[in-house]
Write a structure and sequence with these properties.
Elements (H helix, E strand, L loop, with lengths): L6 H30 L4 H11 L10 H9 L1 H21 L3 H17 L6 H14 L8 H12 L1
Length: 153
């Protein structure tokens, strides 16, 4: 084999990059669906209200739900924007591991609020793959910046 890296590094980079782009596209879809549907304060109030007496919602979500009820307009704007931002960062491969960590945290927040869709478990797994494989950003902006720093150093 030629080159300074073994073939497995290329395979791991491609797998991580594929997982990164896939979860990024799923986040973009989630955010754009919310924008197209006119997601806003009423939706946040509905979600927060539905958690109060729901036995599937864990006890630790109560303060989050209360906070959401105090500023539903803010959350109605922030949540779709967060989803689109996560999608853009992951597709671009910029701040890859941070975005993957925030992705898992956001999905756990949704899951805790009993807002589970069919895509969320897959998104958690894909985000975990990205988080666990540091090479997931190799073929994205992170990799480009890393190579550029190496050349200029």
């Amino acid at each position: 084999m030629t080159g300074s890296r073994p073939a497995w590094h290329l395979i791991v980079s491609a797998l991580g990059g594929g997982a990164r782009v896939a979860v990024g596209v799923l986040w973009l879809n989630e955010g754009f669906v919310k924008y197209r549907a006119g997601f806003g304060a009423a939706d946040i109030a509905l979600v927060a209200g539905s958690t109060e007496e729901n036995p599937r919602v864990p006890w630790f979500f109560a303060p989050v739900g209360s906070f959401m009820q105090t500023a539903p307009g803010l959350f109605g704007v922030v949540m779709p924007a967060l989803e689109v931002a996560l999608g853009l960062l992951l597709v671009a491969g910029l701040l890859t591991r941070i975005a993957a960590f925030l992705s898992i945290g956001t999905l756990m927040l949704y899951w805790s609020a009993d807002q589970l869709t069919a895509a969320y478990p897959a998104m958690v797994v894909l985000s975990a793959v990205v988080l666990l494989l540091p090479a997931a950003g190799r073929f994205g902006a992170d990799g480009w910046l890393r190579r550029r720093r190496r050349v200029s150093a």
